[in-house]
Specification:
The protein is α/β, with parallel strands linked by helices. The chain contains 15 helices and 16 strands. The strands form six sheets. It has a five-stranded parallel β-sheet. Helix 9 runs parallel beside helix 12 and helix 14 packs antiparallel against helix 15 (about 410-440). It is globular and about 60 Å long.
Length: about 450
């Protein structure tokens, strides 16, 4: 019986095929364009459609890494007047690519029709010290898109991507606390933290481009409510309004919006939306405290111009009454007004507590001594439950990655060994989860 099950598993692994990525077939052609985003992208070996040509990009998504650049490009690619480059070219930030010249760069662009604009995205441009000057040398009037998210969450997401990549390539990994802390202090030289210093990098860009050529997209809003952000991008790029609500649907399994266009439905790659590891609360507070002043400096850089040159209808919320995602509450408190998109909270009966503002402006409650022991235990239990849930999510993510890698290798031996590793990992997790919850009730 065991041999039969092994043989069935072997056949399943050999015949397994991952669902194909969304591809576009050019009208009148039976050959798909590999890796096509949906509009205007074509493989270099295919004959281009009549009336198309390649152009240098009219707009570039310059970053930030782990800010939602891929989501922005794929959603923007819904627009029929957009031709999106399929890959990150790293032309302006990698010397070896820049040395190939502008003709090489233009040749990497997709074929497009005269009514289309070409859009390229490489997240590394935003943090590159040389990219702004190089892009300006190519086209001083180019329109730039910069998508940002809560800088603390961006750091954790950055670490998570590197963690999974190293795990996938069988390289050693370190806990996030070991990366964030060095010699007992916050490791501000850690690259993931450096990438979240939005004000530092923005100053470099503003030395070469006026602010009205840089449109800032709220990455957190894009994920939870994509249409308004994309409509602002349409206006910034002078595109006719073509993106509508029916182009998006919420995928309950993945937990974010997916795209519906031309009868096709597609979601972002499985690597998007990975579970984040739990971070030590003390380390997290240190990180938020360090980034807080940088957030404020960035807000001063992108605040509304005194000349009133900006059309507030196209300025994203993060440039009106708040600064960055995660800063809404603090700016609302200072201005005494409710920022757009921020719901006024309703007062609810609760036990006495002290309200304070966290490093990123998030209003939180600290229980006072008048709270009962039951209330404190309940809060502790909930906190422990959330910690355990986070750890479980990470382990499930690791499980999915390990199993998928074994399936891709089509190796029953690897699959069996990896399965044992997963079982041992979960066996370690269950006592840890119980300990967390049990400790909270002491």
């Amino acid at each position: 019986m065991a041999n039969l099950l092994s043989y069935v598993l072997f056949l399943a692994l050999r015949t397994y095929a991952a669902p194909p990525e969304y591809i576009q077939v050019w009208p009148g052609s039976s050959t798909p364009a590999p890796g096509d985003l949906g509009n205007g992208t074509i493989g270099p070996s295919l004959v281009p459609p009549p009336g198309t040509s390649k152009h240098a990009p009219h707009s570039i998504i310059i970053g930030v890494r782990k800010g939602g650049t891929r989501a922005l490009l794929e959603m923007l690619d819904i627009h029929p007047d957009v031709a999106a480059a399929a890959t990150e070219l790293h032309f302006f930030d990698w010397d070896e690519n820049y040395a190939k010249g502008f003709e090489w760069y233009r040749d990497q662009m997709p074929y497009s029709y005269p009514n289309q604009i070409t859009v390229e995205k490489t997240p590394g441009y935003f943090t590159s010290p040389v990219a702004p000057a190089r892009i300006h040398a190519m086209n001083s009037s180019i329109r730039l898109l910069l998508i940002l998210r809560d800088p603390t969450e961006r750091v954790i997401s950055d670490y998570t991507q590197v963690y999974f990549n190293r795990l996938e390539n069988h390289k050693p990994v370190q806990a996030i606390e070991n990366m964030l802390v060095k010699n007992g202090a916050l490791n501000t030289r850690y690259k993931a933290i450096q990438r979240s210093l939005y004000d530092v990098h923005m100053r470099n860009w503003l030395q070469h481009f006026p602010l009205e050529q840089i449109h800032i997209v709220d990455g957190d809003t894009l994920i939870h409510d994509p249409l308004p952000e994309l409509q602002r991008v349409e206006r910034f790029l002078h595109l006719p309004p073509r993106i509508v609500a029916s182009n998006f649907y919420f995928n309950q399994t993945k937990g974010f919006y997916c795209i519906r266009s031309d009868g096709h439905e597609r979601c972002l790659h499985e690597s998007k939306g990975r579970p984040h590891p739990p971070v030590n609360s003390t380390v997290l507070r240190q990180l938020r405290s360090y980034l807080r002043q940088h957030n404020r400096n960035f807000y001063r850089l992108i605040g509304p111009a005194e000349s009133g040159a900006f059309d507030l209808s196209v300025v994203p919320p993060c440039r009106r009454l708040r600064s960055l995602p995660g800063e809404r509450a603090r700016n609302t408190e200072q201005s005494g007004r409710i920022a757009p998109g921020v719901r006024r909270s309703r007062p609810q009966p609760q036990t006495p507590s002290v309200t304070y503002t966290s490093a990123l402006g998030q209003r939180q409650e600290r229980p006072t001594e008048t709270q009962t022991q039951t209330d404190i235990q309940t809060r502790a239990f909930r906190a422990a439950y959330m910690d355990a849930k986070s750890i479980l999510s990470v382990h499930l993510g690791f499980t999915q990655l390990i199993v998928s890698q074994a399936v891709k290798k089509r190796s029953t031996t690897d699959f069996g060994l990896q399965g044992v590793a997963v079982t041992l990992s979960l066996a370690h997790l269950l006592p840890l989860t119980s300990a967390l919850i049990g400790r909270s009730l002491l």
